[in-house]
Specification:
The structure is a homodimer of 234-residue chains.
Chain A (H helix, E strand, L loop, with lengths): L2 E3 L3 E4 L19 E6 L17 E7 L13 E2 L10 E2 L12 E14 L2 E7 L7 E8 L2 H4 L18 E4 L8 H12 L10 H6 L5 E5 L2 E8 L3 E8 L1
Parallel strand pairs in A: 10-13
Antiparallel strand pairs in A: 2-3, 2-9, 3-8, 4-7, 4-9, 5-6, 7-8, 11-12, 12-13
Chain lengths: 234, 234
């Protein structure tokens, strides 16, 4: 028995590739994004009263993980555990999971009609641009908020661990773009094993490529927790 | 473009009909339930590490709402507004919604293999028994808990408003069953308009039928906020 669902819209975010997407969005509360609603779900009546809520749940599909999850794999390696230990997929928020359903808590910004489209603007987005949206629900604190819940290996929010500087000869960027690059890189998107001193000693000049919107950003990481943006290309 | 999903299991709860199911589960934290996992998702490895979490998200399908949502209806009448005002479906948790996706926060109890089945025991269930489960994810407080979020017309948890008594000539029941009936009825499952004094004055002897497991429970409501269980049949 299977269930057939129809996406209600599509999410637009700065993240045009997986590398650099913060985990659980909580790390980046002001990353802007919007959802374009597909007819008939673009009817503004469907959103009547939504501006009374500060936060929304976005139920979506990890569409880029689908090909890789043809067969069921019960164990995954959470990045939070350094990529060494395996945990059950249902004890994780891994994108490689049955049905590829993702859940993100975002801030409501506004809803508007723009050139014949309904756009729901949100912030705190941690999804790949192009993500199919399956549902939108209001966040209800009395039901959804359990600040004292216990959460295994993911007790605390990932902290910014890199300070970010920019090479002086880069093309000029908007304040927003500089802030976005700084935020994303400061959370250290590198794989856990690249963060080990042994790895860094062997690859001191490694350039990491990050894609945000249509910008290709190259950065290096110096031993003392310093990231430096070397190239910005479109 | 549509998305095909396969339920990973089926939820078992005391609620064999919609009438009486508390809204947002928060009202009934100790209602017991379990999920039986469908192969291949019954592999215990898929749950490795889950006992480190106190709470879980259950993503499910409102399977009994499917027939009624063949065509898209953007407005619903939230019970919280007395059934009078209409709100947008995406500004509500109504079960009559595109894709019929539901989201419930429950407590983790234990996971076990019982006669060849994997059962994930949970509590705080607010789903109809037989609900198809699409995903299970750990609750992560740093990402999911926003106690100060603003939530429109659903600011506070529904409170128990009826005190419950039992007619003396009822068949003997277990303590658990008496506690369950008391909890469910005390939250007043009647439609909002039945709670108005005018309605009650016209229908003083109305018997409400509630079904829990395979028990048929009949109760009346007296004017002063008193519910009395009159019949219990199997």
């Amino acid at each position: 028995m299977s269930v057939e669902l129809t996406p209600i819209g599509s999410l637009h975010s700065p993240f045009s590739q997986k590398f650099g997407i913060p985990r659980q969005s909580a790390g980046l509360t002001d990353i802007p994004g919007y959802i374009t609603l597909t007819p008939p779900y673009d009817d503004l009546n469907g959103f009547r009263g939504i501006d009374a809520f500060s936060h929304l749940w976005i139920v979506f599909q990890f569409h880029q993980s689908i090909e890789q999850t043809q067969s069921y794999s019960p164990l995954i390696r959470p990045p939070r555990l350094g990529g060494n230990d395996k945990m059950g997929v249902f004890a994780s928020r891994s994108s490689f999971r049955p049905n590829n359903i993702g859940l993100s808590l975002v801030k409501f910004v506004k809803i508007e009609r723009v050139s014949g489209q309904t756009r729901l603007h949100i912030s705190g987005v941690d999804c790949l641009s192009g993500t199919p949206v399956l549902d939108i629900k209001p966040y209800v604190p009395y039901a959804d908020s359990h600040p004292n819940a216990v959460s295994g290996y993911a007790k605390e929010q990932p902290q910014a661990t890199l300070s970010v500087t920019f090479s002086p000869d880069l093309p000029a960027q908007t304040e927003e773009m500089l802030a976005l690059m700084t935020q994303v890189i400061s959370l250290d998107p590198r794989p856990a094993y690249h963060q080990r001193p042994e790895y860094q000693a062997l690859h001191p000049d490694k350039i990491y490529q990050l894609r945000l919107y249509d910008f290709e950003i190259g950065f290096i990481v110096e031993g003392n927790g310093q990231a430096k943006v070397m190239t910005i290309n479109r």
